[in-house]
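pls ignore typos typing on phone
arginine + seq
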Amino acid sequence: MANKTSNQMWGGRFAAGPDAIMEAINASIGYDQRMAAQDIAGSRAHAAMLAATGVINDSDAEAIREGLLTVLSEIESGTFQFSTALEDIHMNVEARLKELIGEPAGRLHTARSRNDQVATDFKLWVRDQLDATEAGLLALIRALLGQAEAGADWVMPGFTHLQTAQPVTWGHHMMAYVEMFGRDLSRVRDARTRMNECPLGAAALAGTSFPIDRDMTARALGFDRPAANSLDAVSDRDFALEFLSVASICAMHLSRMAEELVIWSSAQFRFVTLSDRFSTGSSIMPQKKNPDAAELIRAKVGRIFGANTALMMVMKGLPLAYSKDMQEDKEQVFDAADSLMLALAAMEGMVRDMTANREALAAAAGSGFSTATDLADWLVRVLNLPFRDAHHVTGALVALAEKKNCDLPDLTLADMQTVHAAITPDVFDVLGVENSVNSRVSYGGTAPTQVRAQIAAWQERLG
Ligand code: ARG
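k done
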């Protein structure tokens, strides 16, 4: 274990050990132990490469390999004793390896530094999160497609400014989120491709004079290639920042959807009923069924945005290459990743389980003069009015309906002709919401034919 007076890993030139405050500010083991599996994978790849290139002998490499497996199983079973004096996961693992196998453990750090080690471990950890995000997004997209398919032709009001605008279909609304989360999916994949270069072998900052094989370690750890510049390799945290920015945009989408679920599940809207599994009750008001999961998703995005900003602040202005500031990269990313995974899973569960109230959606679709644009378009198409005039005439008809306290289809032909004498009875065809949505067949429009085509395209894409 650690020497009481000076650190066994770097204490050669030190006469005294650190002050307790120094130890407290310096230690990262409290959180970077989450990268234990990645650290051991990196060390195993490094040791195997050192043996293959003749830098260490095979029996030492074998002792290291077996020792590392023991360390991993101790960590996984919870028996490992983490030490703050040993600062971080790298030195904790190496010190335990020394206890287990003795002298060969000291050869593992040949041609390596904690700088390339931590960059590698952290990249592997973030890469796993990108993979988990991809899986979470795919599950959510599938749940949305299920909802869209079930209600491809159900009518509901479409909103702008949260005011009734034009009727749309439930399927169309669900598919809007599929597009949003689909872009998140493509950003995740794009970030993963770009980040997949291995820092290991960059050593402290300048590379090494040992005859290492960086292609071998890169391959062993599932990277596409070794990072090409050793200074950049140890000081690059773009991969973590890209994860956080991808996560932020995705979280922003999640919060928008969460907000709609909060509104839609209210007694005033009743557009959806959330399942009991994804709702909570009130301890005082027996009638309540609260959309807590949606509210927490809406709130959790703040932590993700915060992490993104925090890491930007850590990295800004840092000179090349490694600075200890960069140890502050991890906690934020860990917290943001945990929040994102939970939010994605909760959203998927809510979407999968929720019931759209077809009747309430249809009733709302027909109110608020939602087919006024269809009426204006009819005046253009049939009476050949310029659109601006048609807009004006329609406005007068809406005002008339408002005065009579009814909706547009409830006006009589005579009522309408007081506003414009040339209006004919077939105007009523376009005032129904079904006709309205069925007519919007332009590419990407809300007509069920369009929606079904988009659903099919996505199902094909997802395979
Ligand atoms: N715990 C450190 C970190 O997270 C590891 C790298 C330490 N490197 C150093 N030169 N002190 O960044």
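The mean pLDDT is 95. DSSP finds 19 helices and six strands in the chain. more later
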